[in-house]
């Protein structure tokens, strides 16, 4: 009875979450229709991080972030050559940002939830990027001489609400069941506004992006609708913000990106709850079934032991009825021939 009550409560919560996502999708449609975004030749399902730092129009911001991460001082944004694989998909997610500068292959991803499986994602993207690079360069895979390739650098920027360290590393080998010969290390960087102050100071656009995300969250915590919170955040951005004019000029797209990320997070949360409920229900069912099975089995042995002690049946007949070997029967009951 108690399990049924809990299940009904979980179903009600899932229905509530579905209602929330449905209402947000209605806001999607209003924004799309009002701004005629469907006719634009751009995928507005991109995340805001990619829209800012993976946009060829903003190479100077990409370069600023690269310099801040690597403590370099490159000053020519045109040295950056984007090679993002737009149609590369892993687990339903696209490759965020990749580019080459000074013979370094940079793979950047953005995550709003902790994901220890990022190395596998980078491994798959990296393979595609190097395949693309070697097919378009003078790389000769049949050469007897060593062919040089760009140095890979894997970075994942995290800005979820779950508290995480400022910096940490995920490795592909962490997922191995045993030792392996391939390694991929992903440097995780926490870009929430209260983390990595030195990095924020070194890259003003990153600081401003973190401010925008934090401001929207704060307004949402005050029970403000997401689209209204994004509008107010854009309006309240300080005038000296480098990214201000870009976001103001792309206000509708920015709102759509926030709504997209919000919906993705809600759907993942709902999916997790559904799997929990499914596992919970299945666990109860399996537990009952296993308990009954174990009870019947134990009862059978108890009965056979009683009959043996009363000399109603022989040891050989008891073993036959038990369905196990003589040695196993002795191990379970302690009775010998």
Q: Termini distance?
A: 47 Å
Uncertain segments of ≥5 residues (pLDDT<50)? 35-45, 88-93
- Describe the strand arrangement of the main beta sheet, using strand numbers: 1-4-5-6-8-7
Give average pLDDT, whole number: 81
User: What's the main sheet like?
Assistant: 6 strands, mixed
- Principal-axes shape call: elongated
The helix/strand order is HHHEEEEEHEEEHHHHHHH
Structure explained in plain terms:
The protein has 337 residues and is an alpha/beta fold. The chain has a domain at 42-206. Helices cover 55% and strands 11% of the residues. The longest helix has 59 residues, at 251-309.
Overview in brief:
55% of the residues lie in helices and 11% in strands. By secondary structure, the chain is α/β, with parallel strands linked by helices.
List the helices and strands and how they pair.
Elements: H1 2-35, H2 48-53, H3 59-70, E1 81-82, E2 89-90, E3 93-94, E4 97-101, E5 104-111, H4 118-136, E6 151-158, E7 167-171, E8 185-190, H5 197-202, H6 204-221, H7 226-236, H8 244-249, H9 251-309, H10 315-322, H11 326-333
Parallel strand pairs: 5-6, 6-8
Antiparallel strand pairs: 1-4, 2-3, 4-5, 7-8
Helix pairs in contact: 1-9, 6-7, 7-9, 9-10
Features:
single chain; 337 residues; 8 strands
């Amino acid at each position: 009875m108690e399990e049924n009550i809990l299940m009904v409560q979980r179903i009600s919560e899932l229905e509530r979450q579905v209602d929330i996502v449905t209402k947000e999708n209605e806001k999607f449609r209003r924004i799309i229709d009002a701004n005629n975004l469907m006719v634009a030749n751009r995928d507005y399902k991109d995340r805001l991080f990619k829209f800012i730092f993976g946009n060829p129009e903003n190479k100077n911001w990409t370069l600023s972030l690269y310099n801040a991460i690597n403590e370099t001082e490159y000053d020519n944004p045109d040295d950056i050559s984007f090679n993002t694989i737009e149609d590369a998909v892993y687990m339903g997610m696209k490759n965020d940002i990749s580019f080459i500068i000074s013979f370094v292959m940079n793979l950047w991803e953005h995550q709003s939830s902790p994901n220890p499986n990022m190395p596998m994602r980078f491994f798959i993207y990296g393979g595609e990027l190097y395949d693309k690079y070697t097919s378009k360069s003078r790389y000769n895979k049949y050469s007897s001489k060593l062919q040089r390739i760009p140095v890979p650098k894997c970075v994942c920027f995290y800005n979820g609400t779950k508290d995480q360290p400022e910096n940490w590393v995920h490795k592909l080998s962490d997922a191995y069941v045993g030792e392996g010969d391939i390694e991929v290390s992903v440097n995780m960087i926490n870009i929430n506004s209260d983390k990595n102050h030195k990095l924020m100071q070194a890259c003003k656009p990153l600081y401003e992006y973190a401010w925008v995300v934090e401001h929207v969250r704060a307004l949402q915590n005050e029970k403000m609708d997401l689209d209204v919170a994004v509008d107010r955040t854009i309006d309240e951005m300080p005038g000296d913000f480098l990214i201000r004019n870009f976001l103001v000029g792309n206000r509708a797209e920015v709102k759509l990106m926030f709504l997209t990320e919000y919906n993705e997070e809600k759907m993942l949360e709902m999916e997790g709850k559904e799997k929990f409920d499914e596992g919970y229900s299945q666990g109860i069912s399996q537990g009952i079934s296993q308990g009954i099975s174990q009870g019947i089995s134990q009862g059978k042995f108890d009965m056979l032991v009683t009959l043996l002690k009363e000399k109603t049946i022989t040891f050989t007949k008891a073993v036959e009825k038990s369905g196990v070997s003589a040695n196993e029967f002795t191990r379970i009951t302690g009775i010998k021939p």
